[in-house]
Amino acid sequence: MSARKDNIRITIFPNKSFQKYTDVIIKQIESCEKKTFPKNEAMAVKEEVSKRTNTLLIAYYEQDIQKEQCTQKLKSTSKPNDHQRKRANKPNMTITKEIIVVGYIIYSNISSTQMPVTRILKLCVHHSFRRIGLGEKLLRNVLERMDVPKRSKADLHVDVERTVAINLYKKVGFNIIKRIVDYYEVGRDAWLMEFIN
């Protein structure tokens, strides 16, 4: 994967402009998910995205791919001459666009009697694109979209052992509220963190 930081864009997915890439994008997200999280934490991405309360943002870049295609097919009814044979075998280069997902965030809107809550369900950045501020950019994008803290609260759960993730959340403005014992499985606790401006 090779892209410059300034070539990476963030958008809501699915959307009409990426309709023909949907399956490829979902596969990329699932692959990143499996490589990053333990098996019991891997999400059924397609299922999560289809829920009305959930939203998926992807960080991606576009890459042009050159493909060869034969320019002319030989007719089987007549015997081709040398010139026709050379033309038929000459490759024609076509360029197609490919979408490469390098990070994503899934969040949910939860109604509340007081103020709606934006819950961060999953944040993941491809290992080759870490430490360039992409996770922070995805988080801040969600907070801005959901108008946190003016119109919505925000919270998340994070494994108490994931210090890199915890530090990122703190940097963005989340604070540890409480420890939830055995949240992920027996022996694996989580911090509940809330965004505090």
From TrEMBL:
GO terms for molecular function: acyltransferase activity, transferring groups other than amino-acyl groups. Gene3D superfamilies: 3.40.630.30. Pfam families: Acetyltransf_1 (PF00583). SUPFAM superfamilies: Acyl-CoA N-acyltransferases (Nat) (SSF55729). It comes from the Eukaryota. Residues 47-197 form the N-acetyltransferase domain. CDD domains: NAT_SF. Keywords: Transferase. The keyword Coiled coil does not apply. InterPro entries: Acyl_CoA_acyltransferase, GNAT_dom. This is N-alpha-acetyltransferase 11. It comes from Rhizophagus clarus.
